[in-house]
């Protein structure tokens, strides 16, 4: 699991950007997934849909402006976790793009160094990476960059993000690596690991990894191939479970996973190793289904009407002149660029492509093509194409959407096919709602009340289209929209999981950098246990 730190946005950044909403970075993810969580440091006044459209006829871009009464939280600067340069004033997608570039370089350099480094130079395996069973058997989950433990020979990789596979290389020989088929294929493709040392686990099926220990991989609802591991230790006759351990890796919890776990497990889980990326009150974002549905319908309307007409943008600009002069020559009104990580966020592109009845374009010249070819089965059959004329939805790195210049460079070779460019940046940490700034919660009772109110409020489960509409900037050549799509569990998701999946002990795997954060997370675990004991949620 990656090292992460809680940080905030500088007050100078707020003063500098008077025309837009400034998001304060709550936490910075160190490695490749780059899901750098942030939450708004400003309390934004809610505007009606009509207000958003009326602003379209003014000179200012369509974006919520700072209100004078808004409260600004001053904070320290943000540094890139890889190269340590100051990225405080970068746009959020520029932070991601910069981190992506830095990580690829540092990972390659670390891999080369590790080929000649001795085993002694590696740190000792931390306890949070080791799962221990009653009979003394031990396994490791997502811990490859540490010194060899002679008593451990079984390793599990939850998914193919580099903060989880860091340390793997061609010469890996510490033991057998278990993972989903997709993750195994990606691992072999990248590292050419000895195939005798990898084992693909069938999803949703029990596999015996020891005489009386089994594992069931379940869909983590994260990136392609990502799994939640349910380990069960049985008595000598394999009749009764004596210990159950759940390791979530990185996951986006949902009712289907909760129901599946409760149906499999006859008794309470002994331990849950929990992805606590967003275990901070205020990180609430809509369900994935809602985000995919609303965003894909929005894209359909843009494709049908054209973006300027959809937003009733009547300004006589060079953009409209260009549009009129090229409309008769292009195949599509809009080119939709969906920013993604090396692997992850593909569901948004799939939803948009299916809504538009088109395919997803991936250039054969790109490094992404080689990666995607390892998990083509993840996509609906025939959805991926290498013929640009067959698609108006392109999967691109987030770095492509970082600036007008980078989009210009990409669009240059496709300008005869598409009239306008619309970009989508899928990220859960741009979203705020009425729970975004929770009150002080000094007691367990106050925490219980907060969780109960949150879990009973269903309005924040649905994405309001106005969240996207208000980002329109009428003076911009290209329109880029942040959509609150996340592949990590929100605070609400975690609260629902913690109150409905019965467990004896929960261990946080993320945000372990400070004792204060660890204590706060432990208080939430105790809160969920108290709610279960009251029979308000969970098993009865």
UniProtKB/TrEMBL annotation:
Pfam name, any one: DRMBL
GO cellular component annotations of the record: nucleus
Cell compartments where the protein resides: Nucleus
GO molecular function list: 5'-3' DNA exonuclease activity; damaged DNA binding
GO biological process: double-strand break repair via nonhomologous end joining; interstrand cross-link repair
Region listing for Disordered, in residue ranges: 1-26
UniProt keywords, alphabetically: DNA damage, DNA repair, Nucleus
Residue ranges of domain DNA repair metallo-beta-lactamase in the record: 382-513
Classification via CDD domains: SNM1A-1C-like_MBL-fold
Annotated Low complexity bias: 1-12
InterPro entries listed in its UniProt record: DRMBL, RibonucZ/Hydroxyglut_hydro
Gene3D superfamilies: 3.40.50.12650, Ribonuclease Z/Hydroxyacylglutathione hydrolase-like
Composition-biased stretches (Basic residues): 15-26
Family under the similarity heading: Belongs to the DNA repair metallo-beta-lactamase (DRMBL) family.
Record's protein name: DNA repair metallo-beta-lactamase domain-containing protein
């Amino acid at each position: 699991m990656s090292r992460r730190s809680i940080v905030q946005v500088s007050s100078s950044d707020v003063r500098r950007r008077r025309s837009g909403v400034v998001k304060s970075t709550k936490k910075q993810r160190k490695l490749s997934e780059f899901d750098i969580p942030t939450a708004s440091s400003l309390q934004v006044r809610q505007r009606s849909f009509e207000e958003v459209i009326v602003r379209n006829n003014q000179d200012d871009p369509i974006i919520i402006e700072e209100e004078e009464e808004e409260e600004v939280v001053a904070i320290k600067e943000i540094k890139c976790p890889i190269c340590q340069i100051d990225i405080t004033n970068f746009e959020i997608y520029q932070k991601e793009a910069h981190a992506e570039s830095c990580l690829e370089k540092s990972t390659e350099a670390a891999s080369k160094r590790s080929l000649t480094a001795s085993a002694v130079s590696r740190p000792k395996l931390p306890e949070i990476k080791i799962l221990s069973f009653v009979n003394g058997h031990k396994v490791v989950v997502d811990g490859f960059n540490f010194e060899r433990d002679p008593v451990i020979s079984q390793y599990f990789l939850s998914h193919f993000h580099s903060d989880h596979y860091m340390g793997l290389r061609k010469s890996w020989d510490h033991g057998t690596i278990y993972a989903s088929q997709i993750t195994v294929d990606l691992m072999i493709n990248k590292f050419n690991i000895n195939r005798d040392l990898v084992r693909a686990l069938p999803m949703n099926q029990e596999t015996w990894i020891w005489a009386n220990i089994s594992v069931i991989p379940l869909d983590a609802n994260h990136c392609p191939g990502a799994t939640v591991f349910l380990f069960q230790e049985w008595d000598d006759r394999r009749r009764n479970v004596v210990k159950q351990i759940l390791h979530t890796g990185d996951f986006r919890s949902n009712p289907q996973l909760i129901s599946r776990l409760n149906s499999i497990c006859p008794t309470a889980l002994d331990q849950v190793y929990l992805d606590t990326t967003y275990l901070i009150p205020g990180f609430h974002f809509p369900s994935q289904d809602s985000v995919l549905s609303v965003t894909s319908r929005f894209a359909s309307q843009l494709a049908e009407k054209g973006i300027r007409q959809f937003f009733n943008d009547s300004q006589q600009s060079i953009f409209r002149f260009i549009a009129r002069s090229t409309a008769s020559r292009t195949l599509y009104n809009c080119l939709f660029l969906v920013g993604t990580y090396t692997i992850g966020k593909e569901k948004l592109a799939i939803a948009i492509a299916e809504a538009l009845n088109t395919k997803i374009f991936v250039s054969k010249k790109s490094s992404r093509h080689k990666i995607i070819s390892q998990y083509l089965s993840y996509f609906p059959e025939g959805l991926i194409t290498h013929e640009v004329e067959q698609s108006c939805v392109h999967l691109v790195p987030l770095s492509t959407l970082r600036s007008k210049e980078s989009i210009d460079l990409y669009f240059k070779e496709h300008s005869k096919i598409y009239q306008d460019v619309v970009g989508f940046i899928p990220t859960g940490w741009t979203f705020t709602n009425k729970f975004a700034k929770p009150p002080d919660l000094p007691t367990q009772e106050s925490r219980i009340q907060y969780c109960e109110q949150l879990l009973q409020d269903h309005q924040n489960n649905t994405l309001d289209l106005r969240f996207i509409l208000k980002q329109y900037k009428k003076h911009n050549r290209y329109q880029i929209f942040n959509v609150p799509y996340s592949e990590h569990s929100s605070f609400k998701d975690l609260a629902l999981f913690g109150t409905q999946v019965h467990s004896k002990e929960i261990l946080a795997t993320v945000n372990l950098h400070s004792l204060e954060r660890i204590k706060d997370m432990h208080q939430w675990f105790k809160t969920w246990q108290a709610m279960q004991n009251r029979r308000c949620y969970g098993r009865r």
